[in-house]
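General statements about sequence and structure are easier to judge against a single worked case. For one protein, we set the task of working out the structure tokens from the amino acid sequence alone. The sequence in question and its structure tokens are set out directly beneath this paragraph.
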Amino acid sequence: MGAVRPVAVVADRIAWEERRLIEAAPAFGLRLDWVNDESLSLGHPDAPSVKGYDTLLVRSRSYTRGGLIATLAEAAGVPTLNTARAIHACENKAALRALLQAAGIPVPDHRLVLSRKDFDKALAELPLPLVLKPVFGGMGKRVTLIRDSDTAHSVYDYIEDLAHAFEQASVVEPYLGGSSVRCLVVGRELIGAAEFEAGGSDWRNNAALGNRTRAVAHDPDVLKTVDGVVDVLGPGIYGIDLFATPDGFVVNEVNHAPGFRAVASATGADVPSAIGRYVQELLS
């Protein structure tokens, strides 16, 4: 058996997913070490915090750290998974949608909102109900459903008055229903797909919020859309969220460090082994 290859799992904490990845690693000749994404001190080409690893598995849950860490690690000669380019694209919902649209991949109708004037125009151009979400963010946090034009500006007051300039960048889009399809991709392969359905009093269909999940078939439309996203971002590890519309699937967002517990539970897919095998192949 060859030498064990050291891989850093760069994250702010070890959650269920990271524990499963660490446990699965030895079967693929890997040793996964947790490296706190707040303690890297990158910048110098010989940064000791990353130089001892063959690759970095970037699973930072911050919506800014992942891309920055990957960029500086790659500059120091240490490859990252996903690539810095892919992570930066996924961290910015507006930039990601522009990339996908340019490649002919359908995304929801949306408006970038940077000011009250932008918000007024979005309300005039898009039908209610609308979803207001941050450009930088995830896990369903700070996503708001606007059902009534009378309350829309009261909602925007919180963004205008309480958010810092970076957090004021928002996207407004039509509400596309209470369910979405999460596609877990490793390399170029769709490992598992599950429908997330909003439950109880929370309208958001996000696995982090404990919504209902069920496995869905890998139908041709899903596979075509997933392939298109990977063509744009490059092979990697992604959680691709789709909405079904009368005209087919649209890509809502792509998570570069996806939680996969819900998809694994719903589908029975062995996601940690798929990731371990993929990392092994990349390092061989």
About this structure: The first helix runs from residue 16 to 24.
